[in-house]
Design brief:
single chain; 77% helix; 0% strand; binds heme C
Length: 111
């Protein structure tokens, strides 16, 4: 009787530990997955030549008022705040802004 209780207790402890470990893992992969997914999606949506075009527009239009800020200087999150305003400042059309965005986001600093 005593042994049985001990086993049940140990079993309960183990499953609690395993459960919390798994839950922790699940949430941490989820946060990084959003950025990874986004990059994967852009890579699928834009061809390599479009990416090159995006880079060309970026180099050509984004150092008229200041030094060229490299994509790796900021995270995706930060770039998303910066880009709409700057694309407007650089007077890019929707297509150019999309190309620049795709290139910058896929080359941004890892979180
Ligand atoms: C018409 C001038 C102008 C053009 C063109 C321009 N910028 Fe800017 N940019 C600014 C000014 C002014 C600031 C600083 C003040 C501000 O943040 O608005 C700035 C700041 C920035 C910053 C720094 C933001 C920070 O928080 O440190 C980044 C990054 C940037 N620009 C990227 C770009 C990119 C990418 C492009 C091309 C799509 C671009 N800029 C085109 C005027 C311009």
């Amino acid at each position: 009787m005593f042994m049985k209780k001990t086993f049940v207790l140990i079993g309960m402890c183990l499953s609690t530990i395993i459960f919390t470990q798994c839950a922790k893992k699940a949430t941490s992969t989820k946060t990084s997955a959003t950025t990874v997914d986004e990059v994967a999606e852009l890579t699928k949506k834009y061809s390599p030549s479009q990416m090159t075009e995006g880079k060309a527009v970026f180099v050509g239009s984004c150092q008229k008022c200041h030094q060229l800020y490299q994509p790796a200087k900021f995270t995706i999150k930060k770039w998303k705040k910066i880009l709409p305003d700057m694309s407007h400042k650089a007077e890019l059309n929707a297509n150019q802004a999309g190309l620049v965005r795709a290139w910058v986001i896929t080359n941004a600093k890892q979180s």
